[in-house]
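Annex B. Sample input.
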Amino acid sequence: MRKTWDNSDQCGAGAPAHVSAGGTRDVWLRKCGPSRAFPDSVNIGTVPIRPATVLAPMAGVTDTVFRRFIKQLGGCGLIMTEFTSADGVLRNPKVRGRYLHFYQDEHPISAQLFGSDPRLLADAARIVEDLGFDLVDLNLGCPAKKVVKCNGGSGLLRDLPLIRKIFESVRAAVKIPFTVKFRAGWNDDEIVCVDLARMAEDCGLCAVALHARTREQGYSGNARWEWIASVKQAIKIPVIGNGDIRSPEDACAMVAQTGCDAVMIGRMAPANPWIFRQIEQYAERGSYVQPAEADRYQMIRTYFQMLLEEEMPGAEGKMKQFASWFTHGVPGGAALRKTIYEAEGGAEILSGVEEFFEAKLQAQPL
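Annex B, continued. Sample output.
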């Protein structure tokens, strides 16, 4: 599906996606306005999500520091943990401490579990509920070979009867809203997203999130937003769209083309942590603020300071990992990344960031 618009009179969330070779998204936005293209909020069970934006669960990324960091920047309605092994939650208290630790200012928050044993997933979901999470989510999307090899993540997409057993077992175990994030299917010849979504609704799940790629695609190629539209047309519970949202314009385009009730953003969040706030601004007034160099400096320094204050194991490694994302588009960013990579400790990394940006800001004309 080309993410462009034709000059149709049917506008707004849930309107059919009429796409033509000559249409453009800008034409549609001038005619209908972005505020009509994006929902203010969505209720997942009894939990209101406002704005209707979700930070996707990402291994190695969405720990408590990054989640709170995104929350502080504003505009994100729901945050999610890194995907967490149900077996690990039950067997190893350290897994709980690392992956299921959160603070009160993170609400509403969802914990994402993966696994293939209905009983273990139900028991892990009870722990999630007891810990105070607002929602629990099942991962049926991870394409990683080591996860698929254990019949977890997207590996389960070839076994819908087992998925039904998991849905029923977890749903019976907890009272908090239960959701699922899944891919469209194993490959283009095995697309199961509509059947899976209907099964989720039938089993009492409160929402579904579709990453509109197959397991075979991984993260390559284009997300097929028409699959999101098909799921939305098939069920009544909220549908969250995920895939190829790189800008506020993309978020509004996805909603209007598919009718989805909310959008989920993954890989763009580390590259542009302001994207949630920008979507909110764009939906309200048709424009959004691009961060200045001083804003980027403050953002990097804040995140690195939060990592150090949390005393999280491997904080220096995370700082170096995130440097390539956070310095994207910064003039002279290669020199800053080199400084960060060569630093031997967190304090030295933070000092290098401060020296780099303060020198640039002092050189700017008043």
